[in-house]
Each structure stands twice: as structure tokens, then as C-alpha cells.
Design a protein that fits this description.
The complex is a heterodimer of chains A (315) and B (287).
Chain A: H1 4-23, H2 32-70, H3 72-77, E1 81-82, E2 87-88, H4 91-122, H5 125-140, H6 143-162, H7 169-193, H8 197-205, H9 210-221, H10 223-239, H11 242-247, H12 265-272, H13 279-314
Antiparallel strand pairs in A: 1-2
Chain B: H1 2-39, E1 47-53, H2 58-71, E2 75-82, H3 84-93, E3 98-101, H4 107-110, E4 114-128, E5 136-137, H5 139-147, E6 164-168, H6 173-183, E7 193-195, H7 198-207, E8 211-216, E9 225-226, E10 228-229, H8 236-240, E11 247-255, H9 260-270, H10 272-280
Parallel strand pairs in B: 1-2, 1-3, 5-10, 6-7, 6-8
Antiparallel strand pairs in B: 3-11, 4-8, 4-9, 4-11
């Protein structure tokens, strides 16, 4: 049994100090350097907030007028994209982003989670370290290299074995899945390792097997961390551009199979930004606006789910 | 205490906004000063030139103007779009010092006393995988492939294999020229794979034995095979003697004999240095 009395007494003393500080806050003399450090910190935070505000404002200011002109439902759901003839429908790209992102999550989340459990619970320390350094390596590879690998290896493989041109949702799903694996593995492994040891000890002491403990005790306890891992992976997948542009073929059509080429919203922006002008450019900012809102909403939804999960556990 | 901190943050935010605004205004002021400086002419070559016309020539003009202005800081060149017809009209009326056209002038346009300078040729090569046994296509067949009407190589005399159509993105100059010359303004099939650079189109065609794509002529290399169009080989000579069909001239037009800064700029464009820039940007040089 840990000695909680010590912990309690430290806590009490800390609280007393805090209360004292709170009470005499304005009377505590501050040294000059302390004042300056405080100012620098506040200034940094201010600049950070300002930068975010400006970027958001800029994207919205550039994108919203065209969306309004085209009509929101027309812009979002029409699948015809012919910017030089005034057809601004990003419906096909909306579907494209969803297809590629969720396709990648579909295989990367289970694989990542199993790897994380293996590393945290099953593997001997040496194996864990080796695996860990490989995952670090995977995380450090620039996305353009993944894209190039996809273009040279994955695309021809799909073309020869499954048919079509090879540039397809499938190629995007495969490459993106690999790219988000390190995020998913690292964060869920850390959250599994952060589960208090007592949980596991108690579960084993009650006669549960190791597998039952992992499934019924450790993973539920690490749930919020795992959800975070999935959200961050999803964020990376939906925002990834370079690798996706290189392997998905970028045809602005509604895909009819997993072998069909597809264009994502991020691809649309990077593909056409170079020469776009006037309404065409505004339509690309409109795409950025939709992407922005989409990601914020997605994060909020997952956040709510994660919180609901935690409060359920506490009940 | 909280409100105090809030006030602090607000004041800092306001301060940074002010700072940014000051920077912006400062920048604008500088620009105005610079313009003023150029209007007061004392040196040998100064003044401002307006280049207007074809949007296909525009990117070339912009890069050339940038380099020319760097060498001659007293000259200001404004490059505008508008289209070939407008460029020709602007040169004839004197609204622009130089009109830019990406097509040959019509008979009635030639009567306006305009001086023509062909500054470059824009040739587009249709490329396939080197192993493809097709080495000649009719312009009409290329159009039908890009319309999505022909989808298998056997329809044009090749192997029984589906055609992978590779295309540039909307807004690209190469695509614009291709649409104008080959597609005759009809829409390219939306099923086409889109790549956003000449290099990417070439790499994709080089990697897919059923692919067809198009790139500007100077970009063709050993990785791909440029096919003949209507029996004519795609090379610089055939572009210059106009026997190769997927090509067009880039023309600068002036009203009468150019003088001063305008002449200097055209001389620069036609010089080795200017032609090198044109080639780097993806067109065929005239010499």
C-alpha cells in the first residue's frame, strides 16, 4: 500500500501556498526580469492567436463570397468541376476526401492498435525498442517520398494485379494508411502504458487472463488516448496532400469503384493554385474553407464522443 | 485579476494589429514612391511599357519582364491578359505598347499596320509509353481519345488495352493550348487522370504502358515516345515550318517601328538570354 498520508500533507502545503499567493498576489514584489519574461510570454501567445485569427479570416474572406455566389448546396453537392467554364461543384472531391481518409483509417487503426498493444503489453523490451525505432523512422519520412514510393511501386502493382490505371483510391488508401500508422501506434501505445499498474494487477489477481485484462481493462482505460490517436491520424490523413496528389490520379469524378481515380479537396487546391485567377482562385479558397470547417466539425464530434466515453467510465 | 489579464491580452492584440497595419501602410507608401521615381525620366532608358493580350503568352511575358526590369530598374513593364484578339486590338489602337497574340493574325488584322515579332513557338507533343506500337495518330483520333469516345488502343490500330488518358489541370497553359488546337474548345473527359506538372505527366506516361499524355515539346525525353500527328513528326523544325499541327506561334505586335524602351525589351526577348528564358518556361525558341 502506498503511503497516502505523505501525499496528503504535500497536497495540503501546496494548497496553503497557493491560497497565500492568491491572497497577496498583487503585493508580491516582482523582479524586473520576471516582468519582462511575463510580457514576452503574453506577447508570444498574442502573436499566436493573432496568426490563427488572421489565417482563418483570410481563408473565409477569400472563399465565402464565391460559395455564396454559387450557392452553398450547389458548391458542396454538385459534382461538376470545370472552373474555366464557371462550374464550381466540389461534391466529387468531398466524396474523394472521405473515401481516401476512411479507407486509410479502416486498415491503419486496427493494425496500429494491435501493434500498440503488442509493444506495450506483450513484446520483450528489446523487441519493443527495435520496433519503436522503426516506427520513429516511418514517422520521419517526408510525405513526398511516400508519394514517390506509391507512384513507382504501389501504382504499377495495382495496375498489373487489379486492373485500371493503378492511380486509384486503393493506392491512396494504402499510402495514407502507412503514413498515419506511426501517429496511431505512438499515441495509443503511450496511453496504454499510462494506464495505472494497479488496474492490471487487480485484474490478474481476480483471475482474468492476460488477454482478458487487455481487452476488458487496459484498452477501456486507455480509451481517450486511443480516440486521440485516431483523431490525429484522421487529421493527418485528411490534410495530407503531396502523397495523395501523386497516387490518386486526381480526376474530379465521383468514384464508382475502389480502383477509380479520385481527387481530394487538398489535392484540388494544390493542383490548380499555380495558374488559377479570379473566380477560379476564389473557388480554391472556397475548397479550403470547406476543408477547414469540415476538420473543425470532425474534431468537435470526436471530442464529444471521447468525453462521453470518459464520463461513462467514471460512472 | 482575470479582467486585468484580459485587458493586457487585448491591449497586446491591439498593439500587434496596429504594428501589422503600420507595416502594410508602409509597404504601400514605398510602392508609390517607387512609381513616382520611374515617372521622372532622366536616364537613357526609362518609362513604362504595357504588354497586353494572349493569356498563353502572359506567363512568358511576366518572366521576361521581371528579368528585364531587374537589368533596367528605370523601366516599368505592366503585363496584362485579355486574350489574343484584345491584344491585337490594343496594339492597333495604341492602348498597349506591345500586343501579344498566340495565333496568326487574320487578313483584316494584318491591314492595321502592325509590326509582328514571332518571339517563340508553342509546340505540344503527344506522348505514349516507348513500348506502345502506335507511332502515328490522326489529330481527330487524339481528340476522340481525349473526349472519351475512343477508350481502347485497338480502335486506333494498337493492342487490345484500355487507354489511360493523362491530362494537365484546369488553368494550365499547355492544357489551354491543347484544348484550343486539338479539342476545338470541347471538354476533355472528366475521367482523365490529372497531373499538375509537365514532369508528372511525363513520369506517369513513362510508367504506364497504356497511357497517353501531352507535354510541351522541349520537355520530351527518352522515357517517353512522342508520336507523329497526321504523319508529321513532332520536332522543332516541323513546328517552325508549320507542318506539325499541334503548335502555334507567340507573337508580339507593335504599332509601327518600336522605339526606346519598347525596342529594348523586344530586342531582349529575341536575344539569346531572352530565348533561353522562353525555352526554360516550356516553349520552342525561334533560333
Amino acid at each position: 500500500m502506498p503511503d497516502y498520508t505523505i501525499v496528503e500533507s504535500v497536497k495540503n502545503k501546496f494548497n496553503i501556498v497557493c491560497a497565500w499567493q492568491e491572497k497577496y498576489k498583487d503585493n508580491i514584489p516582482k523582479s524586473n526580469s520576471e516582468l519582462w519574461i511575463e510580457r514576452v510570454l503574453i506577447l508570444s501567445a498574442g502573436i499566436f492567436i493573432l496568426a490563427i485569427l488572421l489565417i482563418t479570416l483570410f481563408i473565409f474572406a477569400k472563399g465565402i463570397p464565391l460559395i455564396a455566389k454559387t450557392g452553398i448546396s450547389e458548391f458542396l453537392f454538385n459534382t461538376e468541376w470545370n472552373p474555366l467554364k464557371g462550374k464550381f461543384g466540389i461534391g466529387s472531391m468531398f466524396i474523394g476526401s472521405l473515401a481516401v481518409t476512411f479507407g486509410a483509417l479502416l486498415w491503419a487503426v486496427p493494425l496500429g492498435l494491435i501493434t500498440a498493444v503488442f509493444m506495450a503489453e506483450v513484446a520483450p523490451v528489446k523487441t519493443r525498442d527495435i520496433l519503436g525505432s522503426f516506427i520513429e523512422l516511418l514517422a520521419g519520412i517526408p510525405s513526398v517520398v511516400y508519394g514517390f514510393f506509391g507512384l513507382i511501386v504501389v501504382v504499377p502493382f495495382i495496375r498489373e494485379n487489379f486492373g485500371g490505371s493503378g492511380m486509384s483510391i486503393l493506392a491512396g488508401v494504402f499510402i495514407l494508411g502507412i503514413m498515419i500508422l506511426p501517429t496511431i501506434i505512438n499515441i495509443s501505445r503511450d496511453s496504454i502504458l499510462a494506464v495505472p499498474k494497479e488496474y492490471k494487477e487487480n485484474s490478474l489477481a481476480l483471475g482474468a487472463t492476460h488477454y482478458q485484462t487487455i481487452r476488458r481493462v487496459i484498452i477501456p482505460a486507455a480509451r481517450s488516448g486511443i480516440v486521440t490517436a485516431v483523431v490525429l491520424g484522421m487529421g493527418r490523413a485528411i490534410g495530407e496532400t503531396m502523397a495523395v496528389v501523386m497516387v490518386t490520379g486526381n480526376a474530379a469524378i465521383v468514384p464508382d469503384s475502389i480502383l477509380s481515380p479520385v481527387r481530394t479537396m487538398t489535392s484540388n487546391i494544390v493542383l490548380e493554385m499555380g495558374y488559377a485567377a479570379g473566380d477560379h482562385q476564389a473557388a480554391l479558397f472556397g475548397t479550403g474553407t470547406v476543408l477547414f470547417i469540415f476538420i473543425v466539425v470532425l474534431n468537435l464530434v470526436v471530442d464529444i464522443f471521447a468525453k462521453a466515453g470518459i464520463s461513462n467510465e467514471n460512472r | 485579476m482575470r479582467t486585468k489579464k484580459g485587458k493586457k491580452i487585448i491591449s497586446i492584440l491591439a498593439l500587434s494589429i496596429l504594428l501589422l497595419a503600420a507595416l502594410w501602410v508602409g509597404g504601400c507608401g514605398q510602392k508609390k514612391d517607387a512609381e513616382k521615381g520611374e515617372n521622372g525620366q532622366t536616364e537613357k532608358l526609362s518609362g513604362s511599357i504595357t504588354v497586353a493580350g494572349s493569356t498563353s503568352v502572359q506567363p512568358f511575358s511576366e518572366v521576361l519582364a521581371e528579368k528585364f526590369m531587374a537589368d533596367n530598374p528605370d523601366i516599368q513593364i505592366n503585363v496584362q491578359g485579355g486574350g489574343s484578339s484584345q491584344g491585337i486590338a490594343a496594339a492597333a489602337s495604341g492602348a498597349a505598347d506591345i500586343g501579344a497574340s498566340s495565333r496568326e493574325l487574320k487578313e483584316e488584322e494584318k491591314k492595321q499596320g502592325l509590326k509582328e515579332y514571332v518571339i517563340a513557338y508553342d509546340g505540344i507533343a503527344v506522348i505514349v509509353h516507348p513500348s506502345n506500337k502506335i507511332d502515328n495518330l490522326k489529330k481527330e483520333d487524339i481528340k476522340n481519345i481525349y473526349l472519351g469516345n475512343i477508350t481502347n488502343w485497338k480502335e486506333v490500330g494498337g493492342d487490345d488495352a484500355p487507354i489511360t488518358v493523362i491530362c494537365r489541370e484546369a488553368g494550365s497553359g499547355t492544357r489551354g493550348a491543347f484544348e484550343e488546337i486539338v479539342m476545338e474548345k470541347e471538354d476533355i473527359t472528366s475521367k482523365a487522370i490529372i497531373q499538375n506538372s509537365t514532369g508528372a505527366v511525363r513520369t506517369t506516361v513513362a510508367g504506364d504502358k497504356n497511357a497517353i499524355g501531352f507535354v510541351s515539346l522541349p520537355a520530351v525525353n527518352d522515357e517517353v515516345k512522342a508520336i507523329k500527328v497526321d504523319g508529321t513528326e513532332a520536332n522543332k523544325e516541323n513546328v517552325k515550318n508549320k507542318s506539325y499541327k499541334i503548335a502555334r506561334p507567340f507573337i508580339y505586335l507593335t504599332k509601327g517601328e518600336p522605339t526606346g524602351a519598347v525596342k529594348a525589351f523586344i530586342d531582349f526577348v529575341l536575344s539569346d538570354e531572352g530565348q533561353k528564358i522562353i525555352e526554360d518556361e516550356g516553349a520552342v525558341r525561334i533560333k
